[in-house]
């Protein structure tokens, strides 16, 4: 139930709808009970039972006499209206029944009307909260999670809440009140007979709770398996070219089918257990009705029965007893759903409760502009067990271009991850203008940085929308100017809709070189003082590389640049080249100086057959 209370917390902004729902349900339950009680005078008229009509308007004498007061009041007003005419009395009672049922259904609709806004609002807020948390969690969190599992939590698990746990909000007021009002009416009609009902309600609750205990575990298995096959689907869509190229369709199809088969079996077990609640509660209810029929029948036909119950009261009593079954079944289903939804709520809460180790401190500073230098001071960093950077120190003055080179795994891209604070260092400091980046807000830090990665990450939007990520206030002319600097305008201007052209999922309507030039244009449009280029030209063909290299050189003028390079031809003009090997600096200097040293850098150049 803990998870249920956490979900209820999201209903706080919708207090007005909750109050409207509660008030409507109070009247729904009241008129639902009265609609049965109103049958009693009609049955009296039909059975021609003579009523003692009070000479004057009845006086309320306390809660213990409320039954007699209500009965005498109805008899008095009906006699006033009909003048003793049974035909008119029948019409009066029928009108009374119609009005009570009408009011019951009006308030039932209003309760559902308010619940629509409450339930959908809670679901929207939970989904938004989970998505926001996903955006702000560090990259390290997702390196250990399957994308499909995250998608399953944001979609499937939230939907499970909508159809399992949140409908219980409707039951919290309506069904208990219906039972309370009904039992009150039954007590007024026959206290003795009602004692039998109180014996059966706890028995029903106990049996239903036994059924619900295993549902949470079974539901958790279903949701985990859903995350698994969604992950397979996501990986299939992302890697379809490789799957087809290696004739691996059957292998992936087999994995997907195995997962959906497990999901099928888990779902069957879960739903069959869930479906057991309703027939069991109905059967127990019929058992209760049967005992009422037996015991109540004896009260009517037994000696002195007129002191206890008459025929019309007994029929209404049976109707009221049956009226308890519907809310009792709803409550039992609701408790089962709470157990089922608990697993979904836990999986959602796991994301919401995840700590972000990169969260800004309370006293974090807003960084405005870049004035002097970037310093890496004795940096140690590891992703898991082994350090990928060891005692790394480097100073980059403002306006200088520093290139980081080395073999794969030497720690080059890690520098880009650390300066952008996608990860935090284990030991040491990264300083910008003498301030540790951990003491800056992430937003203001990244505002100083332009990032171009090896993989051109673009979105299923127009070229314009993709570039506006760099600067939302940019005009169309600003976008065109940025495209020209990145040597991208030459192909963009020939597209059917120019900068408004949609580039497809991950930019798949464009070539690799075109995508990379767009990502460079995006960084140009942002116009930050510090540029971080993580192997920005490694995915390009020779012609595109030449075009982009010119663009990069233009872009880096008057900017501080950290260039992580695979192709050494792109960094010959760097102010300083830093050669890394296994996380440590082994050489440092300008291109010609390093060539003359005939060390690690010279070997890397020779391996790429670079002409010097």
Account of the protein in words:
With 612 residues, the protein is α/β, with parallel strands linked by helices. The protein has two domains: 2-352, Up-down Bundle (ABC transporter transmembrane region fold); 373-607, Rossmann fold, CATH 3.40.50. 62% of the residues lie in helices and 10% in strands. It has 23 helices and ten strands. It is elongated. The chain starts with a helix and ends in a 5-residue tail after the last helix.
Tell how many strands the DSSP assignment holds.
10
**CATH architecture label of the largest domain:** Up-down Bundle
Pick out the low-confidence regions.
303-307
Shape: elongated
From the alpha carbons, calculate the radius of gyration and give it in angstroms.
37 Å
Helical residues, percent: 55-70%
Oligomer: single chain
Q: Give the strand order, joined by hyphens, for the main sheet.
A: 6-7-8-3-9-10
- Major sheet attributes: 6 strands, mixed
Rounded to the nearest angstrom, the distance between the terminal CA atoms is 72 Å
Q: Which percent range describes the beta-strand content?
A: 5-15%
List keywords for this structure.
612 residues; alpha/beta; ABC transporter transmembrane region fold; Rossmann fold; six-stranded mixed β-sheet; 23 helices; 10 strands; 10% strand
Put the structure in a nutshell.
It is built from 23 helices and ten strands. The protein is α/β, with parallel strands linked by helices.
Indicate the topology.
Elements (H helix, E strand, L loop, with lengths): L1 H8 L5 H23 L1 H8 L19 H17 L3 H51 L2 H5 L3 H19 L2 H22 L1 H23 L1 H24 L1 H6 L3 H27 L1 H25 L9 H42 L20 E10 L4 E11 L3 E6 L5 H8 L7 E6 L2 E2 L5 H6 L1 E4 L10 H5 L8 H10 L3 H4 L19 H15 L3 E5 L7 H15 L3 E5 L11 E6 L2 E6 L1 H7 L2 H8 L5
Parallel strand pairs: 3-8, 3-9, 6-7, 7-8
Antiparallel strand pairs: 1-2, 1-4, 4-5, 9-10
Helix pairs in contact: 2-5, 2-8, 3-5, 3-14, 4-5, 5-7, 7-10, 7-14, 8-9, 8-14, 9-13, 9-14, 10-12, 10-14, 13-14, 18-20, 20-21, 22-23
Subcellular location: Cell membrane
Keywords: ATP-binding, Membrane, Nucleotide-binding, Transmembrane, Transmembrane helix, Transport
Membrane topology: Multi-pass membrane protein
């Amino acid at each position: 139930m803990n998870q249920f209370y956490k979900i209820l917390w999201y209903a706080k902004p919708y207090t007005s709808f909750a109050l409207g729902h509660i008030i409507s349900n109070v009247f729904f339950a009241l008129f639902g009970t009265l609609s049965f009680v109103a049958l009693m005078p009609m049955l009296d008229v039909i059975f021609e039972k003579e009523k003692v009509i009070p000479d004057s308007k009845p006086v309320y004498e306390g809660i213990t006499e409320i039954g007699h007061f209500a009965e005498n009041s109805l008899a008095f007003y009906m006699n006033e209206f009909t003048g003793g005419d049974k035909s008119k009395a029948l019409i009066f009672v029928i009108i009374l029944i119609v009005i009570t049922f009408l009011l019951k259904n009006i308030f039932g609709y209003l309760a559902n009307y308010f619940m629509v806004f409450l339930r959908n609002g809670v679901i929207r807020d939970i989904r938004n909260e989970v998505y926001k948390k996903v955006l702000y969690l560090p990259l390290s969190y997702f390196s250990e999670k399957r994308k499909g599992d995250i998608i399953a939590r944001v979609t499937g698990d939230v939907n499970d809440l909508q159809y399992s746990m949140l409908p219980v909000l409707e039951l919290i007021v309506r069904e208990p009140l219906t039972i309370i009002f009904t039992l009150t009416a039954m007590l007024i009609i026959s206290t003795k007979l009602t004692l039998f009902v109180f014996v059966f309600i706890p028995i029903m609750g106990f049996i239903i709770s036994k059924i619900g205990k295993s549902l949470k575990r079974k539901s958790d298995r279903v949701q985990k398996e859903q995350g698994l096959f969604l992950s397979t689907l996501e990986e299939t869509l992302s890697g379809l070219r490789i799957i087809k190229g290696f004739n691996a369709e059957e292998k992936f199809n087999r994995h997907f089918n195995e997962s959906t088969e497990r999901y099928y079996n888990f779902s069957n077990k879960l739903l069959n257990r869930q479906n057991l609640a309703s027939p069991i509660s109905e059967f127990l209810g019929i058992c209760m009705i049967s005992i009422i029929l037996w015991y109540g029948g004896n009260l009517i036909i037994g000696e002195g029965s007129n002191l206890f119950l008459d025929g019309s009261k007994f029929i209404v009593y049976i109707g009221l007893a049956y009226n308890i079954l519907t809310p009792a079944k709803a409550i039992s289903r609701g408790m089962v759903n709470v157990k089922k939804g608990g697993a979904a709520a836990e999986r959602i809460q796991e994301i919401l409760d995840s700590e972000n180790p990169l969260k800004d401190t309370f006293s974090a500073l807003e960084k405005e502009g870049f004035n002097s230098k970037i310093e890496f001071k004795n940096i140690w960093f590891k992703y898991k067990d082994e350090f990928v950077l060891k005692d790394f120190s480097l100073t980059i003055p403002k306006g200088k271009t520093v290139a980081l080179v080395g073999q794969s795994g030497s720690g080059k891209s890690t520098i880009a991850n650390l300066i952008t604070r996608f990860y935090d260092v284990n030991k040491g400091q990264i300083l910008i203008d003498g301030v540790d980046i951990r003491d800056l807000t992430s937003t203001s830090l990244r505002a100083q940085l332009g990032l171009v990665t090896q993989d051109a990450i673009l979105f299923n939007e127009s070229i314009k929308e993709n570039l506006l990520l760099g600067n939302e206030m940019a005009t169309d002319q600003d976008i065109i100017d940025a495209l020209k600097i990145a040597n991208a305008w030459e192909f963009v201007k020939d597209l059917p809709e120019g900068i408004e052209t949609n580039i497809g999922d991950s930019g798949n309507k464009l070539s690799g070189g075109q995508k990379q030039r767009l990502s460079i244009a995006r960084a140009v449009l942002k116009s930050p003082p510090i540029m971080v280029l993580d192997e920005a030209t490694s995915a390009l063909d020779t012609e595109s590389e030449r075009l982009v290299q010119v663009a990069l050189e233009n872009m880096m003028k008057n900017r501080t640049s950290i260039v992580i390079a695979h192709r050494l031809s792109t960094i010959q003009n760097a102010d300083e080249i830093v050669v890394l090997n296994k996380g440590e600096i082994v050489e440092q200097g300008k291109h010609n100086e390093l060539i003359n040293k005939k060390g690690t850098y010279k070997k890397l150049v020779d391996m790429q057959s670079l002409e010097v």
